[in-house]
């Protein structure tokens, strides 16, 4: 199999159910999810197994689920096949958020990206995830999508924030607080 096909040389690409321009919002949405997947892989490569024995498999599972998200977003004509992203995947993210949140202190101020390398990498994942979510929101205004993908990305960015904070705890570093912020968050219940 050749890696190059030359079929995209005129600025078109194949999606599930047709061909579209490479700058189509659908391609932008699943392309941003693919970009996010790369950043997740990069973050995993920074993790030492002895400090992150639980996170590494969770993030690897997320990489597979991001492929599912992109696959669902690539469906140009609804009904061609069943969607892969399901509510249970969102529910799992919420369980992981709660699990990792238990390791962190209450937030008092806004948090800046930083601290450890892993934390910083997870903040990059969080911001790329938010961009992917924005692209999906734009796509959903124009065309039918699997709404679970939008929910998944929304929850996933929350997980990345929580994992970033947990990474700092595991590395023995404090979160970097935004110093001009008042104490804006309430204590956990």
From TrEMBL:
* GO biological process terms held by the UniProt record: cobalamin biosynthetic process
Q: Which SUPFAM superfamilies match?
A: Cobalamin adenosyltransferase-like (SSF89028)
Report the top EC class in one word: transferase
Q: Could you tell me which pathway this protein works in? A: Cofactor biosynthesis; adenosylcobalamin biosynthesis; adenosylcobalamin from cob(II)yrinate a,c-diamide: step 2/7
Residues forming the Cobalamin adenosyltransferase-like domain are 3-167
Q: Output the InterPro entries linked to this UniProt entry.
A: CblAdoTrfase-like, CblAdoTrfase-like_sf, PduO-typ
Molecular functions (GO terms): ATP binding; corrinoid adenosyltransferase activity
State its Enzyme Commission number(s).
Answer: 2.5.1.17
Q: Name one Pfam family in it.
A: Cob_adeno_trans
Q: Identify the keywords attached in UniProt to this record, alphabetized.
A: ATP-binding, Cobalamin biosynthesis, Nucleotide-binding, Transferase
Its UniProt entry gives the catalysed reaction(s) as: 2 cob(II)alamin + reduced [electron-transfer flavoprotein] + 2 ATP = 2 adenosylcob(III)alamin + 2 triphosphate + oxidized [electron-transfer flavoprotein] + 3 H(+); 2 cob(II)yrinate a,c diamide + reduced [electron-transfer flavoprotein] + 2 ATP = 2 adenosylcob(III)yrinate a,c-diamide + 2 triphosphate + oxidized [electron-transfer flavoprotein] + 3 H(+)
Q: Which residues cross the membrane?
A: none
Subunit annotation: Homotrimer.
Q: Which family does it belong to?
A: Belongs to the Cob(I)alamin adenosyltransferase family.
Q: What protein does this entry describe? A: Corrinoid adenosyltransferase
Query: Whose protein is this, by species?
Result: Chengkuizengella marina
Could you read off the lineage of the organism from its UniProt record? Answer: Bacteria, Bacillati, Bacillota, Bacilli, Bacillales
